[in-house]
Amino acid sequence: MPHFLVAESETADEREARHRHAGKSSGETYAATLAQLRPDAEITIVAPADDDADQFGADDLRAFDAVFVTGSPLHVYDDTPEVRRQLRFMRSVFASGTPSFGSCAGLQLAVAAAGGIVRKMPERIEAGVARRITPTEAGRNHPLLAGRPDSWDAPAIHGDEVESLPENATLLASNAVTTIQAAEIRHDGGVFWGVQYHPELAPGEIAVALRRQASDLIEAGLADTTDDVEMRAAQLDTLHDDPDRRSIHWSLGIDAQFAQESNRRIELSNFLNHLVEPNAGPRSDQDPAPADLCPA
Q: I need a labelling partner for 237 at 20 to 30 A (CA). Which of 29, 58, 95, 173 fits?
């Protein structure tokens, strides 16, 4: 039975706010998604940002088959105690050799922990649908993106982005808004696969996020009024309940890559299939690094 560790990148206040609006924290959403993909898995949720959080060293993390790092409103370029604790945790993940995966802030934390740079997006935020994500030459042959077409859309909401990747990282996908949409990072004996978008989220959860950040969307020029935001959120709610409705596909400008749950989760499924299950079971210092399972 695989044992997964889900690391919340939200603070306690942010988890409580998401609970009020969405009914789940980001970690609980990740856990629910993983439980659907691997019903036999044991899943533990931790919150490394909290000041009373348990400290996980590399030896502790080797007891897990994979680590998943969630999204959040965290700004990893802020020098706060919460960010420092998150970065310390992520460095321990790399040192453990345990395969890891992250989305949105999860990708940004891995980048910063390995020496890359994260910034506030200079022009606008990306919200609702990340459009026309395209693999790089390396991405076309990388198992993280196996099954993706030449271009696809994905759920997204973020105002920060990766400015530059660390050493020993590979850019796997980009779009016109955010250059680094998917990447592999190898650092200190570990391997991380991450995306800027949200393969773990359902359309209804993106709708909740749009409503919560309506003022930010208006300020960024993505919407003129709160009614505009509500219209887009309502469309996503409808898609959540009726993923095959063609009129909503047309209204949102999406296809099955976004509408169908299994397609939205391709990167998570590929991570489990390629990095986790071939290497299942606790690792020791003598075990081969999981990075050997994927191409350079």
A: 173
